[in-house]
Amino acid sequence: VLKVLSHIDSILRSPRAPPLIYRRSKGPVQNYIKENGQECGFEHLPLTVEMWADQLMALKDLHRSLRKLSLELVPWHTADPQDNRESIRVEDLQFIVDAILEEIENKEKNSQTPPLPTLFAIVSHFQKLFDVNSLNGVYPRMNEVYTKLGEMTNAMRNLHELLELDSSAPPTVVVDTVGKLCDIINENVTEQVQQLLGTQDIHSIIDKLEEHKRFFPPFQALIQDLLCLLEIRNLDDILPTVQNLK
Q1: Which residues contact 78 (CB under 8 A, 6 or more apart)?
Q2: What are phi and psi of 124, to 5 degrees?
């Protein structure tokens, strides 16, 4: 134990230790007594450790205050990943302070920043364009618009490649090309139906379908009766089975 206490005491007395990290008690001194009755000189350690604990707790309060300040000054920054951590490091506080200072420096360097009325007008215009009822909904809708724009851009790029169009072709050209392609597909389907039914006239096609509608149910019933009568399951087995009955 004495070895550990001596090591802690040497750290406190080190030139690298901050001046305020070591503080002697103003009250009565309570020395640790060795077995031979001599003082150990470690009476300041409990007070110092207690001060450490207070400072660590104060770091959490400082971190909370800096986060509130950051949300006021730079609300577009993402949430601090250290918010849910039990222990707060000085590096976490430094990160928040650096982000705030960087934003302030950027504002000072940018002399082209429009006045507040202009900024309010831009935000109001965005709200009208994208049906945003409150200021709190502006940032989420911006993210949504950005995501949708990326999806649309990727879709248009893929269509340009599939249709073998120039990358500079406007969306109207893409839509016209897709429409022509659909017309070609529909014409091919119509031709296939006409070839299948053996007619070119739409009225004849309707008549053929009506004939099929009248003919198919009795034919299906006849086939089912044959399958049951001949005790078979497949249509291909009907003819061989009937031939064997001769």
Answers
A1: none
A2: -65, -40
Residues 59-93 as b or e (16 or more Cβ within 10 Å = b): beebbeebbeebeeeeeeeeebebeeeeebeeebb
pLDDT (tens digit per residue) in 34-69? 444 444 567 777 777 788 778 878 888 888 888 888
**Torsion (CA) 174, 176, 179, 180 in degrees, nearest 10:** -110
Closest listed residue to residue 102, CA positions, set 77, 68, 138: 77
**Residue 124, CB-side half-sphere exposure with 13 Å CA sphere:** 6
Tokens encoding 222: 């006849």
d(CA 119, CA 124): 9
Please enumerate in sequence order all residues whose Cβ is within 8 A of that of 92, keeping only pairs 6 or more positions apart, or say none: 63, 80, 82, 85
Q: What whole-number distance in Å separates Cα of residue 62 and Cα of residue 69?
A: 11
DSSP H helices in 41-170: 45-73, 90-109, 116-129, 138-162
**What CA–CA distances, in Å, run from 93 to 86, 100, 166, 228?**
14, 11, 51, 85
Q: What 8-state DSSP symbol labels residue 135? A: G
Q: What is the pTM of this model?
A: 0.34
Alpha-carbon distance of 71 to 64, in angstroms, equals 11
Q: How far is CA 59 from CA 89, 153, 198, in A?
A: 8, 46, 87
Give tens-digit pLDDT for 16-25. 666 655 444 4
| 150, 169 contact by CB (below 8 A) | no
